[in-house]
Amino acid sequence: MEIQITTLSENTAGPGNFLGEWGLSILVEAEGLKLLLDCGQSISAVHNADIFGIDLGKIDKVILSHGHYDHTGGLRPVLARMKKRIEIIAHPDVWAAKYARRQGRADRYIGIPYRRNEMESLGACFKEEKGPTRITDTIITSGEIPMVTDFEGIPPDLQVKTPGGFQPDQLLDDQAMILQTGAGLVVILGCAHRGIINTLYHAQQLTGVKKIHAVLGGCHLSNAPRERVQLTVNALKEMGVERLGVCHCTGLPAAGIMAQEFGKRFFFNTAGTVIKLP
After folding, report:
1. Which one, of 246, 265, 244, lies nearest residue 255 by Cα?
2. CA 22, CA 41: separation in Å to the nearest integer?
3. How many CA atoms lie within 13 A of 6 on its CB side?
4. What percent of the chain has a predicted confidence (pLDDT) above 70?
């Protein structure tokens, strides 16, 4: 199975007139389908799709990796450009009232910046599942990701506002896209809030495939201690990951360590990056 992966939105932009913006949106073309994982923060995904000459009206499905604004804020302009009814695969918790609550700073809402009825009026048909969603025989979403490692965790400043007050956000809506290929698994991450290694272990368990050909996307290691980054690198090497293309919330220090450790197997996945796998 040939796969083409185009990064439409990311914090940084490659050569050309691509727009960089904090967030992520990745177009996956495989098995005759065009699947959009996340929509970036605002206009960048649409802007960069125009530069590529990509017709967003031909997207078959949208997958939301989780409910943070930098992955969902671009949903309105994307839907406005699509001008059709489109299935959006997501976990029910994408609609939770998500906040960042950092000491010494005002509470900041970081959830979806739109109301559901507005998105539905623009054509969104939400398919909400807690478990994996099978798109084809070889393409699935991860659904909820079990946390099994002892070095990956969710920062306590990420919280959900409930009728009873603020509670830690377990980010059960965090999910990835998994593709089975003859070369091994291709796993595409949004932010991997529940841990990149937890996500990869879950992908192996879901599919029964141990070999991991490529991992792309955000790893949420931007503020992680060096020890966690090194444990992550060690686990990636132990699993034999053949290509690693990190970006967004991975953070430059962690990405730099990964680049050193993986050498030619590593690439930084900026907006405008197009790769073909396997």
Report:
1. 246
2. 7
3. 21
4. 100
What's the N-to-C CA distance of the chain in angstroms? 8
pLDDT digits (tens, 9 = 90+) for 145-177: 999 999 999 999 999 999 999 999 999 999 999
- Tell me how far CA of residue 138 lies from CA of 66, 110, 142, 245, in angstroms: 22, 33, 12, 21
**Backbone angle region of 195, left / alpha / beta, with phi > 0 → left and psi within -120 to 50 → alpha:** left
Question: Pick from 90, 78, 88: which is nearest to 41 by CA?
Answer: 78
Spacing of C-alpha 167 from chain mean position: 23
**Triad 32, 34, 37: Cα angle to 5°:** 140
Indicate which CATH number applies to the domain containing 99: 3.60.15.10
List the one residue out of 139, 137, 171, 146 whose CA is nearest residue 37: 139
**Numbers of helices and strands, H then E, in the chain:** 7, 17
Q: Give me the number of domains the chain comprises.
A: 1
**Taking the complete model, does pTM exceed 0.90, yes or no?**
yes
CA angle 68, 62, 99 (to 5 degrees): 10
Q: Supply the range of the domain harboring residue 32.
A: 3-277
